Amino acid sequence: MERRSHNSWEVLLVQKKPVRVLVIVRKLNKFFERSDASIKEIALQHLHEEDAKTLVIAKWPSVTTMVFDLFNNGYDFQKAHNADVMDVIAIDLGPKQNPKITKMSDLKKMEVNASVAEFHRLNGFEVQPPFLEDHRDGKVPAYPNPRL
Prior knowledge:
6-stranded mixed β-sheet; globular; alpha/beta; 6 strands; single chain
């Protein structure tokens, strides 16, 4: 019987433990102009998953990033301004046909989790995810009621 080896990110999915996913779509990619829902669907297809909780969508002139959670049944909106300690899978939908999918290092994992917590803090308790931060066309995000 042939045995298939798994990438470290695949093992996370097989274990079905909570995992955060960072999707990076660069301007040179054919998906850059697609809707957020379409980008999420493409990312989930690459992970062989069907659904996820979208937390953050950040749009810049040359890149769009999206963060969503898989298997995170313990997500608590009231406490989400405190950084989680979750593994993070990055999907880079660069200009090439096949995406680059990796499990992020501990340092990068901490950065992504801290960033998600900061989005919760900045947006306060009135705004529910997904949080949209749009920096295109000279826009500057405003946060009128951050969590203290």
